[in-house]
Amino acid sequence: MPDSPPEEVAETGGPDLISFADMPARLEAAGLKKVSAQRCRQLAEEDPAWPVPIDEAMKVGRMRLFDWRVIEPYFRNRKSRQGQRSDVQRTEQAEE
Questions:
Q1: pLDDT tens digits, residue range 24-79?
Q2: Are 55 and 31 spatial neighbours (Cβ–Cβ below 8 Å)?
Q3: Are 35 and 23 in contact (CB under 8 A)?
Q4: Measuring CA to CA, which of 45, 59, 66, 70 is 20 to 30 A from 15?
Q5: Four-residue CA torsion sign, 44, 54, 57, 70
Q6: Which of 19, 80, 15 is closest to 47 using CA atoms?
Q7: Which long-range contacts does 55-60 make (Cβ < 8 Å, 24+ apart)?
Q8: Positive or negative CA dihedral for 70, 76, 78, 81?
Q9: How far is CA 57 from its chain centroid?
């Protein structure tokens, strides 16, 4: 039947799409460290380990939507480097 969804989507109920604004609450509900929506956007733009390139994310109006089932493992496995200054590290490494 051409109108039926792909089998993998039918079994899982489809993607669980969330925006950057939804991520902090979803992280907290999952028992993970709460990260601001702005920081989530920054990670999406700058972290090469972010699972979905920002330009490939679903776009609705001005919002970018990501499948939570793809994003959640990224946050679960991400190593927090709170307070670490990368600009100081580069300077120290360059001097060695």
A1: 999 999 999 989 999 999 999 999 999 999 999 999 999 999 999 999 999 999 98
A2: no
A3: yes
A4: 45
A5: negative
A6: 80
A7: 58/17
A8: positive
A9: 10
